[in-house]
Design goal:
By secondary structure, the protein is an alpha+beta fold. The chain is built from 4 helices and 6 strands. The N and C termini lie far apart (about 90 Å).
Amino acid sequence: MTTQPQIKNQGSTNSAPAKQTVTSRGTTTVADGVVAKVAGIAAQDIPGVYALGGGAARALGSIREAVGQKDLTQGVSVEVGQTQVAVDITLVVEYPHPLQKVADNVRDAIYAAVEDVVGMEVTEVNVSITDIHIASDESEEKSAATQRTDDQGGQREARVS
């Protein structure tokens, strides 16, 4: 009796192979991080999705964006087998978009993108909505930050004079 070697899933690290295809012309390996990135890109394209990830992930994402790097896998977790993948995604929805409709659209987009681009069967997409973004909150935060910057600038000028 012979047994097939089993490939263990190592979570959503970038170095773990997600899918390996062997043909007569060679081998193709797709990393878990690639699957997560495809899912993240698909989710961000949906109207009503403001951001991916929870509070801490978004804070780190803001720092990355400030230095010119955007993490497309933020808020996305994948569990990859040899031919199937499950996706967990956390997002913030813009108010007043209907939450269930946005979640359904994100789910559909991830199913289509992963199956079309990566070529793996998606078994499930779990969507967690952790916050709602209200546009007036952002404008108030920006005006408060601008006010603080203006105040500091005025103090600097006073010291220089």
